[in-house]
TrEMBL record:
Keywords: Glycoprotein, Signal. Residues 1-28 form the signal peptide. Belongs to the GILT family. Pfam families: GILT. This is Gamma-interferon-inducible lysosomal thiol reductase.
C-alpha cells in the first residue's frame, strides 16, 4: 500500500462590506491560501519548489495571504509523550523548525525563501544541511532555534509545573516550586 501524501489547500475569499462609494483596501481584497504540507514528503517538497514558488515570480502573491502549515501526516502517542512523523524524526524536527521560521520571520518572502531552501535540499536528499539555508539567505538562526527549543519544551506537557517554576523569578515562591527554586539557588 502506497504511503499517503498530505498536501491540503484552503482558499478563503474575504467578503468585504463597503459603505457607498468606498473602495476596500488591497489588503482587504486579498485571498488567504493555506497550504498544509509535510516536510520531507517528496511530493510536497516538489510542489513547494516547482509550483508554489511561482506565485512570487508571477505576482500572484500580491493578491494572496500565503499561510504555510508544516505538519502533515504526524501523530502523537500520549502514553509515550511523543510525536511520530511519516518520514521519521527528521521530518518532525524540520516541521517544528519551519513552523518556528514562520512564527519568527513574519515576512512571507523571508520564511518562504527559507522553507523553499529546506525543501529543495530535501529533494536532493541533503535535508540534514538545513542550517546552510540560514547563512545563504542571510537570515538569523538564533531566534528560530530559540523558538524550536521552546516548542520542544512544550511537548513535555506533563511537567508543565516545573517549567513554570523555573521561569518564575518572583520572591513569593509557591510550595509547588520549593524544590525547583532551591536547586536554582544552589547552582
Amino acid at each position: 500500500m502506497a504511503a499517503a501524501t498530505y498536501l491540503f489547500f484552503t482558499l478563503i475569499i474575504a467578503s468585504t462590506l463597503c459603505s457607498f462609494g468606498s473602495v476596500p483596501s488591497i489588503e482587504a481584497q486579498k485571498l488567504t491560501l493555506s497550504v498544509y504540507y509535510e516536510t520531507l514528503c517528496p511530493r510536497c517538497a516538489t510542489f513547494i519548489v516547482k509550483n508554489l514558488a511561482r506565485i512570487f515570480d508571477n505576482e500572484l502573491i500580491t493578491i494572496l495571504n500565503l499561510r504555510l502549515v508544516p505538519w502533515g501526516n504526524a501523530s502523537t502517542n500520549n502514553s509515550k509523550n511523543a510525536t511520530f512523523c511519516q518520514h521519521g524524526p527528521d521530518e518532525c524536527r524540520l516541521n517544528s523548525l519551519e513552523a518556528c521560521a514562520i512564527d519568527v520571520l513574519h515576512d512571507v518572502n523571508k520564511h518562504f525563501a527559507l522553507i523553499y531552501c529546506i525543501e529543495f535540499l530535501a529533494i536532493e536528499g541533503r535535508h540534514k544541511e538545513w542550517q546552510t539555508c540560514f547563512s545563504s539567505l542571510g537570515l538569523p538562526l538564533k531566534p528560530v532555534l530559540d523558538c524550536y527549543e521552546s516548542a520542544n519544551a512544550t511537548k513535555d506537557y506533563e511537567n508543565f509545573a516545573s517549567y513554570v517554576c523555573k521561569a518564575y523569578k518572583g520572591v513569593a515562591v509557591p510550595m509547588a516550586c520549593g524544590s525547583v527554586h532551591l536547586k536554582q539557588k544552589a547552582q
